[in-house]
Amino acid sequence: APTLLWLRRDLRLADQPALAAAIGEGAIVPVYVLDDETPKHYAMGGASRWWLHHSLASLDADLRAVGSRLILRRGKCDAVLAELATETGANRVHCIRHFEPWWRNAERAVAKRLDLICHDGNYLAPPGSITTGSGGQYKIFTPFWRALQQQMPPPAPLPKPSSIPAPAHWPRSERLNEWGLLPTKPDWSTGFGADWSPGEAGAHHKLNGFKRHAATYGETRNLPSVEGSSRLSPYLHFGEVSAAQVWHAVAGAGGSVDTFLGELGWRDYAQTVILQLPDYGSRNGRPTLDTLPWRTGPDAAADLKAWQLGRTGYPIVDAGMRQLWATGWMHNRVRMITASFLIKHLLIDWREGERWFWDCLVDADYGSNAVNWQWTAGTGIDANMFVRIMAPLVQSPKFEAGDYIRQWVPELAQVRGEAIHDPDEAGCRPAAYPPKIIGHRAARERALAAVKQAH
Ligand code: FAD
Questions:
Q1: Domains and CATH numbers, the chain
Q2: Which residues belong to any copy of the Photolyase/cryptochrome alpha/beta domain (predicted)?
């Protein structure tokens, strides 16, 4: 009987421990189940669906090149897998373990019906395995990272198999084009293709490009006008490349590569947080801030819309929000600035921003998104405080964002010199560009008053 290979966010053939284990057992039926029911509120957002479409097409082609293929099915994953097992005579399923709360529930549901074997393989170390001296989980990043580094390097990546044994009969597959994963009206994804080529080959292409400047990561990663970071996040999220592969490819680069490895550490850390606090995407890590008087009502709704559309009158914020819309990705420094702006300047609940990012990011990741939003908000279990309010008009020149703004905010493309950071103040704001939605000082005072009220 064949074995089922259940694929989710691990869409690769190399360094794929579930695939490697299944190959040892004979014929394999690789399957991807499009399941919007299990994650409910966290069904994939629009940008992720765009990515998924192309990633699945790429994976199917890669599988066909080694004698296999990808079976596509829709429905609740435990029911679909049980049905497929009956059709094919399979009774065993291999998969890579995932830590989103809905996937943990789904793994339990599948294990009730079938012989499910879960493997680790998407993180530097298995989430949950890095424990404190007394056997507990870390709450704060720095000690977690110190302990994780003791376990490094990760195991050497497994090679890509040269052939995958096929079953005597292939079960029926649904057609990817009928899944409707791509946007139609309006098609907001026209700019995505220029930046991204989803799939394992695209992931390695990005990784190879990044290898050449990994040593200078520390100097350039904070500058949005420069391509200083790896842009591997969607590839890592969908598991088109593993964290271990990335680590082994760059760890010897020297220079400031350790700063980069620390970011991979943040990715692992986010998983340990959602393992401890599964509803971290919607519940404050610090319950003392549950009473924070977030703004609601029509004015707040209009401000939220202005933020989403990149029309706040703060050029760095608007550039980031428009980059996000146009490409499905935003520079990390600018993610912090835009998130902070929504939460502190507009006093809008961080969960509104989390939802928007969830829908718009090609790398939308439950753990990383929740941890970073809560970190920025100061509502998280880590050390950051709500009262630390980022000043966008200071951040923008500090990180030399001028060209980035000119690229993403066409109304400001002609603004020269330092005026680009705050054309309003410099007296050269073009009429097409909105005035500031709120002044920095007024916003800061309002936020500080609000947090005082919460305590
Ligand atoms: P690099 O700087 O090259 O880093 C390498 C890899 O490390 C990234 O690809 C990513 O997998 C991981 N990484 C880097 N920074 C972080 C971090 N702070 N937390 C967790 N992992 C990190 N990242 C996501 O992958 N998905 C999200 O949904 C997400 N939401 C975010 C929301 C906010 C408000 C903020 C401030 C950050 C968020 N991040 C998220 C983290 C970070 O911004 C992105 O991972 C990074 O910008 C991706 O670009 P890169 O691949 O060039 O990163």
A1: 1-121 (3.40.50.620), 123-154+198-276 (1.25.40.80), 287-454 (1.10.579.10)
A2: 1-124
